[in-house]
Amino acid sequence: MAMTVPPKPPHGLAGIGKESLPTPSLIVDEECLNSNIKRMADFFADGKARLRPHAKSHKCSALALRQLEAGAIGVTVATIEEAEAMVAGGIRDILIANLVVNEFWVKRLLGLAAKSDVKVAVDSVQNACQLSRATQGTGTTVGVLVEVNVGMNRCGVDPGEPACDLAQLVSSLPGLQFRGLMGYEGHAVGIEDRRARAKQCERSMDLLTSTAELARSRGLSVEIVSGGGTGTYDTTGRYPGITEVQAGSYALMDLQYRRVTSDFRCALRILATVLSRPTRHRAVIDAGLKSMSTEFGLPEVCNQEGVVLDDLSEEHGILRVGEGHPLAPGDLVELLPSHSCTTVALHPILYVLGASQVVEVWEVDGRTIDPCMSNGSIGPSCA
Amino acid sequence: MAMTVPPKPPHGLAGIGKESLPTPSLIVDEECLNSNIKRMADFFADGKARLRPHAKSHKCSALALRQLEAGAIGVTVATIEEAEAMVAGGIRDILIANLVVNEFWVKRLLGLAAKSDVKVAVDSVQNACQLSRATQGTGTTVGVLVEVNVGMNRCGVDPGEPACDLAQLVSSLPGLQFRGLMGYEGHAVGIEDRRARAKQCERSMDLLTSTAELARSRGLSVEIVSGGGTGTYDTTGRYPGITEVQAGSYALMDLQYRRVTSDFRCALRILATVLSRPTRHRAVIDAGLKSMSTEFGLPEVCNQEGVVLDDLSEEHGILRVGEGHPLAPGDLVELLPSHSCTTVALHPILYVLGASQVVEVWEVDGRTIDPCMSNGSIGPSCA
Q1: Fewer C-beta neighbours within 10 Å, C or N terminus of chain A?
Q2: Confidence band (pLDDT; 50, 70, 90) for B381?
Q3: In chain B, which residue's Cα lies nearest the Cα of A287?
Q4: pLDDT tens-digit profile of A265-320?
Q5: Which residues on chain B are in Cβ contact (under 8 Å) with A104?
Q6: How many beta-carbon pairs below 8 A join chains A and B?
Q7: Nearest-10 Cα torsion for A236, A242, A246, A249
Q8: Do the Cβ atoms of B276 and A123 come within 8 Å?
Q9: Contact indicator for A286, A270 with CB cutoff of 8 Å
């Protein structure tokens, strides 16, 4: 489902060694990334369910294209900006697994719908009517999934009758095309015990698939039933009635998900430079809160034995250094992020590393930018 | 110290009302911002010390220019990217209150030094020699402040003899010009009790100024002695021997600093749209961890009585809504950030609001971007 887009000229930093990169920056181990992508693709190779990876984790159309090449049917995104970047990158089959209510972004959603197969989540009568009204006079149809609350208690309409009532309304509104249901078991994906996680996930998927059955019994065509994350892909991907899985973190991985599953390896690292070695036991790096997120805990140093990240300020990381460790200004320190999704959102570029050099420089093109610039191409688009 | 740069064409979103803005986004109350800038400028009007506001808090050259117009002598920054944006915005007098060790950024520092009066901090013999070597053959001189550890225990050489030894080395190295000392009392700025804060700050400033005296007694010219933050501007700005104050957060303010000082008002808000109202007591907005930082606690809803921010996920904020509150999809929610510096770093734009509309659209031009694009202008600059 990828269109051809003209190739970009090579980036000024392609081909250089890791030690010549600016820091702080994000590096991706290509071998590790490819193996994660392949492992997930292999799981879905039998076609029982299909994989639509969530691009909120990497916000990068170049990475998404690798996922599609391996067999993914399209991408899932959380924002219009991410969707625009994916479409500019040549991907046409997009699920916005989020509600779009802000009027500015509703207009942009219609722009996307005109040139791609975009589906958006809806969980209220009000939002459904708003989207329908917005299509009037545009000749555009927007695909809609009804978001069902499968136990996470964030957004979503209640499963069963309430969800079917909304689906029926969506089906009847001009400019909207009802495509199916989605439900995200965000309360299950992080449970460390594999069995407990699967059990919680199954309860959610039962709510979702039984709602789909009810909708079909009312004569609605439920083409897509979408759920799942990296912690639950193996449950959702085999659950009868689930057609698509939204897992995203598996490609880059992080410490949080490493506690949950050993199926994938950490491909993403924060690259930092030692700025200062003020005492025997303290060193300071040039990466802090503006380069790595901490809501799931501190990142971990992974390339220096006996060196521990102790604290972060805005532009600094404070390291506790073991007795006699030679760490000195200029040395490179690599850290595993605790949460890759929010860490990637802090960076403009992913430097993809082969055995000894940067083999790809990927723009994090789904990143939030001036909304009057289109993601994926520079040029005003405020109308 | 501001040069003339050609005016930009008006932004596509200038002149619109708040309700037409994309969300999540950052809005700045112009009256409040101006009053904060004026209040700080008034404090420094007697010239006892001078104000060099820290731009890491706003990363915005347009905002920095307002601070300069009100009397600030230049800007303080934390990164080369911020410095480049300020220079592109027309500001020539720059203090990088941070160590620059990464070789990629050292090269860019020399580019800056060639076209502006840039000063950088140094805290090690190794870094001093590195910078000196880098200037060789460039014909460029880099101004250097020796960073002194005044009790924060992050970077910085010890006060007294060790700092003076390094200052003497810097003075002797080709390509470097020793300009003075800096020390940041980061362990003092957030102490809520005014007296305890002032006392802790005075201890730090004593270490810094006595080191400056010692350096002068060794025949060194100590032009700049720089310290201070928003919590301590009134102590550092009157402390004998301190020549410059680096306060930055005062312009935009946040919840953390509101607990410390009532001298300034919160000018910055996160603007969000209600996406969903799934239950009587829960609503969900379109702003989450990717739009606001949480290391100093959760932001606070400030425009809706009886509505409390309870939790954040990546793109969502969960609100607890009082009984009977009519909050509905499409409504605007405004939140005060707990930490403006790390919150601004998540956004590309500051929308400056007058009484009823957007009066300025300011690019957060010191934000981290593709390092092969210059901040402040689009165009490759990797050599």
Answers
A1: C
A2: low
A3: B79
A4: 999 999 999 999 999 999 999 999 999 999 999 999 999 999 999 999 999 999 99
A5: 20-23
A6: 180
A7: 10
A8: yes
A9: no
